[in-house]
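Field reference: sequence -> structure
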Amino acid sequence: MGAVIAARGWLDKLLKPYGLSLVRLPIWGFGMVMAALWAAPFLWMLSTSFKPANQVFTRDIEWLPRTVVLENYAKVFQHPVWRWALNSVIVSASATALAVLFGAMAGFALARLRFPGRDLLFALFLASLMIPSEVYVVPLLLGIIRIGWANSYQALILPTIANVFSVYLFRQFYLGFPRELEDAALADGASRWTIFWRIALPLARAPLIAAAVIVFTLNWNNFLWPLLVIFDEDMKTMPVGFATFAPAVGSYNQLESYAVAMAAATLLSVPSLVFFFLLQRYFIQGIATSGLKG
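Structure field:
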């Protein structure tokens, strides 16, 4: 019994510098297993993108390519990838900036202003998350075509601005906004707009970054709406353009199509992953702080 207690004390002392303990160790172990399972498909995609066509399907699992080739990426860049990337950057950056700005304004109003039906309006916002996009995408497309906006940047950007999750993050954050700051600003003659723009928004860095990461990723990977509303090759975004390389659609043979499709998918996933990893600390902080208030 003494040996067990001594071993436990030794392990606790060993793990303490890393912020771990014997109680937390299984949780961290489970988390590492889940992280490995999440990363495995991406690593397989990345590995396959560097394989020649005759090494894509093998009897044994090969995580590392026996022969590293760049011809799959060269075939991807035979298409107007740079134009597709420019379209995706314009659409994702514009939609993210507008969605975060309007989400912050709506979240501040729903948290700090008192008006009839405020809670009901917020409940309706949340209820709209249960409506699948397939329900309203056809009426929205017909409306965009009727006003002559099809095949344009505004058709890609404007329908994605109203992001309920952005509103939710800011609303939850502003529920804990210090009342003293607001009262002091009002006593000095500041308007609600001044309080929001000069005090509330600068203090909301964590939910702002969290909302930006989520909205940017959603817009960067958006496929259905750009597929329906864009008709010209030069206006395609990367997800729509890269659908050309799908094995069932592409002009290559099956083995070659899988390798080229993995190269295209790797190029598509890298920007959003880099964006997340650069801001992951603020993203986690924003999600955590925004979820504390009811």
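Note: The two ends are 47 Å apart (CA to CA).
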